[in-house]
Amino acid sequence: MDLQKLTVGQMAELNHVSEQTLRLYDREGLLKPRLTDERTGYRYYHILQSARLDLIQNLKVYGMTLRQIRDFLERDDGDKLRHLLAEQAGQMEERIAQLDRSLRAIRRAMENYKRYDAMPKNGEIFLEFIGERHIYRYGCGVNYFEQDELGYEYMLRQLKRHLAVSNMPLSYFTNIGTIIRKDSLRQGELYSNEVFVFVDEDSSLPDLETVPAASYICICSHELNQEAENVRRLMDYVREHRCEIVGDYLCEVVIDFPVLEFERRQMFYKTQIPVRFFG
């Protein structure tokens, strides 16, 4: 083997890359064979070109595109590498954070399907202890209970737009709900002008609100227009069992089923009121 006159196959074998990879780098102008036999037209690599090939492979490991690598090599500026690495590290950290948020959203959705399978679906009232949760809320300026399905959908658009313009992860938009504050609830007033999303405990979002752990009386339903009746039934339960309302009412969308055609939103939601029972 002539180390100063390596065929593409020999160069590929020595560097543990494919011949297709070397031909790609040749076409892209990243690494061209150094020698050309004028008689045969065959082209050959020099063993010392392996250093440039190592650099290209390392830059690929760093996540750089072939275009970025070519631009860097054409500038012939070794000091530029440290700046490229810092820039690439920042971009990769953001991608990793986005992937982590997406993975958490997937896991929440999978967990919600498990909850859906286990929850009563016949409109019965049940008691459930729920641990501490964290929400990000947004005031819409209108009362949800005075809206129809179109109004509710518009409220969700307002929330989604707010998340987007505030540069918040849209992955949270899969866990939405509405609130009736405790004072309104105790007065029997169906008033909710806030929508919210559940967020992760370690979220860095501003102005998060903690929902304390509590025992909740709950009803589940598929029908959006049945929520007001569900609230009244829960309030009747509070009066009949002489328990105390200790926090805000939440209506949590457990599952938002895929809408495959132009039709109304299909969801399964849980209405819930935190209460304290007296012995």
Task: List its salient traits.
nine-stranded antiparallel β-sheet; Multidrug-efflux Transporter 1 Regulator Bmrr, Chain A; 279 residues; Multidrug-efflux Transporter Regulator, Chain: A, Domain 2; two-stranded antiparallel sheet; 2 domains; 11 strands; single chain; alpha+beta
SSE order and pairing:
Layout lengths: L7 H8 L3 H9 L7 E2 L6 E2 L5 H12 L4 H10 L4 H39 L7 E5 L2 E7 L9 H17 L10 E5 L1 H5 L7 E5 L10 E3 L2 E8 L5 H14 L3 E2 L3 E8 L10 E10 L3
Antiparallel strand pairs: 1-2, 3-8, 4-6, 4-7, 5-6, 5-10, 8-11, 9-11, 10-11
Give a verbal description of the structure.
The protein is an alpha+beta fold and 279 residues long. It folds into two domains: 8-76, Multidrug-efflux Transporter Regulator, Chain: A, Domain 2; 99-276, Multidrug-efflux Transporter 1 Regulator Bmrr, Chain A (Alpha-Beta Barrel). The protein is 41% helix and 20% strand. The chain contains eight helices and eleven strands. The strands form two sheets. Strands 3, 4, 5, 6, 7, 8, 9, 10 and 11 form a nine-stranded antiparallel β-sheet that branches. Strands 1-2 form a two-stranded antiparallel ribbon. Strand 1 (35-36) and strand 2 form a beta hairpin. Helix 1 (8-15) crosses helix 2. The protein starts with 7 loop residues before the first helix and ends with a strand. The model has no long low-confidence stretch (mean pLDDT 89).
Question: Would you summarize the structure shown here?
Answer:
The chain has 279 residues and is α+β, with helices and mostly antiparallel strands. The protein is 41% helix and 20% strand. The strands form two sheets. Strands 3, 4, 5, 6, 7, 8, 9, 10 and 11 form a nine-stranded antiparallel beta sheet that branches. A two-stranded antiparallel sheet has the order 1-2.
